[in-house]
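Following the same procedure, backbone shapes were mapped to integers, as reproduced here:
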Amino acid sequence: MSTYRERVHRSSARATVLRTIATRERRSHLSAPRVPTVGIDIGGTKVMAGVVDADGTILERVRTETPDKSKSPKVVEDTIAELVLDLSDRHDVHAVGIGAAGWVDADRSKVLFAPHLAWRNEPLRDALTSRLAVPVMVDNDANTAAWAEWRFGAGRGQDQLVMITLGTGIGGAILEGGRVKRGQYGVAGEFGHMQVVPGGHRCPCGNRGCWEQYSSGNALVREARELAAADSPVAHHTLERVSGQISEITGPMITELAREGDAMCVELLQDIGHWLGVGIANLAAALDPSCFVIGGGVSEADDLLIGPARDAFRRQLTGRGYRPEARIVRAQLGTDAGMVGAADLARLVARRFRRANRRRAERVHRGGFDLTLPRTWSISS
């Protein structure tokens, strides 16, 4: 029978080992194995997959259209599996990271809801792990994009960073001390559904006046098409460009016309930028980050958008003139950010699984008790 002294010694030794394991698991991402991983970015129109090395360099990429949202979740999973297996023919893939446009639970195992896909409480991680036979990580696409910008892009060196992605709607993510803040239920960062105009435009989410109804790709195109439909003289150049086909007015086309000096398109981007700055000022009041990184397709307008956003931010910032102002910068990685970030986060998961497979149990020297790592052991992101 163990004596009290032996039990105390064993408990102390066990605590030391546990602390050692925890310290290793919390080490910097820089200690993750430098192995190639696959990142996948799933949006409403495309699925992009790429093999990414430990420096964030894309070694190869493949792309296909997103299956129609009316199809079963398995169809999308089949598409993902085919892309990964295709890349695996030419690369030694150690893990797969997925950035999905939707809500992902706190365990990063289920897609709770995806507006552009038929995923509702879909156990995506487990479904793909069983098919691909490598560790799979699932996260929100804005989280993966923010991680990529923090590691390799415009957010390097920032301890407190907020990412805002302007696409069809508005996505967002928060990084604090090198960790993605996902919230209690995994759905933090849905900034696009903050109310900025009480009783304003109806949002597909069911509410009115959401931020993304005033500062997003959809908002930009809606305003341009409304002016064109009203046969406004300011829309003449735009209508000419699309031969009178209003439905062919798109966000990239508006940005292109604005760069050419079209007054209406410049003004529309200024309006979108103004509302972007208003929302950023609200986020600064709540979160007080050092830097806002603006990504997504609409950010391609660069200073035509971000310049007005900075001006509105300074006018709206609480305590303006008496507090430091966060930087507002454009993302550097463009449309690759979600894919690169997903691959890099998957590298951390690969490290955890490599360790678990190599040593399923950590035991105190001659202690005899099992310290098997739990499946849900957290990683540094």
Remarks:
- The CA atoms of residues 95 and 135 lie 5 Å apart.
- Confidence is low (pLDDT under 50) at residues 1-28, 369-380.
- The two ends are 43 Å apart (CA to CA).
- The chain is about 40% helix and 15% strand.
